[in-house]
Design brief:
The complex is a heterodimer. Chain A has 15 helices and 13 strands. Chain A is α/β, with parallel strands linked by helices. The N and C termini of chain A lie far apart (57 Å). In chain A, 35% of the residues lie in helices and 17% in strands. Chain A folds into two domains: 231 residues, Rossmann fold; 98 residues, Rhodanese-like domain (Oxidized Rhodanese, domain 1, 3-Layer(aba) Sandwich). In chain A, helix 4 links the parallel strand 1 and strand 2. Chain B is an alpha+beta fold. Chain B has one helix and five strands; from the N terminus they run E-E-H-E-E-E. In chain B, strands 2-1-5-3-4 form a five-stranded mixed β-sheet, with no helix packed on it. The relative contact order of chain B is 0.31. The chains are: A alpha/beta, B alpha+beta. Chains A and B meet through strand 5, strand 6 and strand 8 of A and loops of B. Bound molecules: zinc ion.
């Protein structure tokens, strides 16, 4: 009994894979011997890690420095209410080992930086990108080029998502294959990226894209064909369309260079925080300012958002603010708020241009609520 | 002559060169382009010609996760 690769419990646990045609015991052994690096334990990371752990991937390393927030639970189904405020990777590790104690999980509660990338080395079979920002994606790309590791990219926005399997070309191989890398496809990141919070995303979307990633991962690790290799998949959850674009390497791209210097890996800087200006208010400052006699609060969101939830003030949607400015007092300071701080920033700019005094609740209602929750005010 | 730009029928007159077509129709910001589901690297925009009925996809990068 003791000379077998699997225990009796594992053999029983994985029987649906073992009985699966062209997967079988071979595929399951390969999964058990696989090492996967997962960067990001959020919307994509939740379904990917749950399914890889359930499937019996032997070693999973989770990297994320974020804590669980109530607003994550709309889609990050690996977490529970009791995890709020706790580290994502430690909470995820506990949940994954609860699901499958036969595997090993390394939880690294850090941001994926150049230093960490160098420290992690190349002892992985696959990297899965579950991050939520461009700069980390460029670093993952360069890290995987340098260490010649395959990686599965996915990203989501509102109702649509993208997914690709990038396999760095072995420059010493005999064939003339030249696969694209992420930089070939997107050499530049947008300077003004879709504002991360206010853009929103339908909760099932990271689940769908994450399962495309997990599906490709399990096939790659178990030796099955991976048609996503060197392809970019585009998925639209609203119109239910799926497209697959064949990629090709771009002349002059980093991936064509003989050596990759990770220390010099850079990406266009993209930040999600709205710009802090003199007229921006922290939640604490907003709460103090609104009690002043010479201030008035304006909610510049849509009518349905205002009806859904508000923290007081006059409701004037941003698109009506210009024409309804005559309703406003020219003497008081108008404290504007919206959901994420972007629309109210525009409102403040507009009011200042019209000669009013105005200040902005930085990070919007989302930030205000998070702050209130952290301080047990709600 | 017409092409399908992100599933919308779009007439093209003189701008048969992909770069010119993109200048006119694609707007600002980084994007990836595919013709008939084949990715076209940026360096090939000026030497790629469009044909009647081509399906052109202009894809913006997204960063959510
Ligand atoms: Zn490249």
């Amino acid at each position: 009994m003791s000379d077998t690769i699997f225990s009796a419990n594992e053999w029983l646990r994985y029987s649906r894979h073992i009985q699966l045609s062209s997967f079988g015991a071979d595929g399951q052994i390969k999964l058990k011997q696989s090492r996967v690096l997962m960067i990001g334990s959020g919307g994509l990371g939740a379904p990917v890690s749950l399914y890889l752990a359930a499937a019996g991937v032997g070693h999973i390393t989770l990297v994320d420095d974020d804590d669980v927030d109530l607003s994550n639970l709309q889609r990050q189904i690996i977490f529970s209410v009791e995890d709020i405020g706790k580290s994502k990777v430690f909470s995820a590790k506990k949940r994954l080992l609860g699901l499958n104690p036969e595997i090993e999980i390394d939880a690294i509660n850090q941001y994926f930086s150049i230093e960490l990338a160098l420290k992690l080395g190349d002892n992985f079979d696959l990297v899965i990108d579950c991050t939520d920002n461009f700069s980390t994606r460029y670093l993952i790309n360069d890290y995987c080029l340098k260490n010649r590791l395959p990686w599965i990219y996915a990203s989501i926005h509102q109702y649509s998502g993208q997914c690709a399997l990038f396999v760095p070309t072995n420059k010493h191989a005999d064939n003339n294959e030249s696969n694209a890398c992420f930089r070939c496809v997107f050499p530049d990141a947008p300077e003004d990226a879709q504002d991360c919070n206010s853009a929103g995303v339908i909760g099932v979307l990271p689940g769908m894209l994450g399962l495309f990633q997990a599906n490709e991962a399990l096939k790659l690790l178990s030796g099955l064909p991976t048609p996503l290799k060197n392809h970019l998949m585009l998925f639209d959850a609203k119109h239910l369309t799926l497209q697959k674009i064949t990629l090709k390497a771009s002349t002059g791209c980093l991936c064509q260079k003989a050596t990759i210097n990770l220390e010099q890996s850079t990406a266009p800087q993209v930040t999600c925080a709205s710009t802090t200006a003199d007229n921006s208010l922290t939640p604490d400052r907003f709460n103090l300012r609104r009690d002043d006699d010479n201030t008035a609060v304006i909610d510049v969101r849509s009518i349905s958002e205002h009806q859904g939830f508000h923290i007081g003030g006059t409701h004037i949607p941003l698109d009506q603010l210009g024409e309804r400015a005559d309703e406003l007092s020219p003497t008081v300071t108008h404290l504007c708020y919206c959901q994420s701080g972007k629309r109210s920033e525009k409102a403040v700019k507009l009011l200042l241009e019209k000669g009013f005094k105005a200040e902005n609740l930085d990070g919007g209602l989302a930030n205000w609520l998070k702050h209130a929750k952290d301080n047990n005010q709600i | 002559m017409n092409v399908l730009l992100n599933a919308q029928s779009t007439p093209i007159d003189s701008e048969r060169v992909l770069q010119k077509f993109l200048d006119k129709h694609a707007g600002n910001g980084p994007f990836a382009v595919a013709i008939n589901e084949q990715f076209i690297p940026k360096t090939d925009y000026t030497n790629t010609l469009l044909n009647d009925g081509d399906r052109i996809d202009v894809v913006s990068p997204m960063q959510g996760g």
